[in-house]
Known about the structure:
mainly alpha; phosphate transmembrane transporter activity
Amino acid sequence: MSVTTSPEQDAPETTRAAKPPRSRGDRLFAGVSRAAGLFILLALAGVFVFLAIEGWPGLSAARDTYAPNHDFLSYVWPLVYGTVLSSVLALAVAVPLAFGIALFISHYAPRRLAVPVAFVIDLLAAVPSVVFGLWGARALAVWLVPAQQWLDHHAGWLPFFAGPASVTGRTVFTAALVLAVMILPITTAISREVFAQTPRLDQEAALALGATRWEAIRLSVFPYARSGMVSAVMLGLGRALGETMAVAMVLSASPVVTLNLISSTNPATVASNIASSFAEATPAKLHVLIATGLVLFAVTFLVNFAARWVVSRNERRMAR
């Protein structure tokens, strides 16, 4: 008794048979890529476990360990506030400048000028943070003293410039400008690459319909590059949140919460507080410092999680 099969029944077997086997190089590359991804996850988990184990005793240490505060929350809150404040101020200065430079390089400047400008911007990323710290503490702070005094005299009615202005210039205002210079290269580089990848046909179509160059960029480049722009901003924010030496060298900090950006009383950041207090810390104080590092780890994770959510939401909207 013969059994007949239809072509539809034979199709899956034919498809499986026709699928070429992966080469040894493909399998090796897939294995290396998978191992690299797992290594990153294991390293991240290892950092979290270390911070959690070593920092847990710091959450409930003796009261004098948190001096001049009385518990961990009152100790870490000014540090988180200073970290977020200086990072947001740095973004407010660096992001518009980075987007402008990226657009200039990718759409406006001739190639003979765009290449050197891009090279100089990328070169800033290779400068060590301690060099930025020295420049900010020894040069920029001195240069900004007259500007901060002017803000005190003419804009002192605002809580940000209430004064009295610092005579040394080592303030949150100065630290934010140093951070802005430090995050400028990475934000500019990513934005430039995203702007350059915008389909040329979309821009030419907008120009053909009578749009100006700026209108073509606003209507075709920005919508296409929105997710990349968000990623660039978030990477810059992550760099600013975790910066240590430059802020520690520039900022004359104290455990306070204030909106005044130009006075000599400035909130410290988590990273700079760890760097300045680590060498002389007792074992109990060391646990407290590690616990603040755990808080910074959580803040950075939440910021990156929010950035990925924004990017994925934008991608789904663009795919409709």
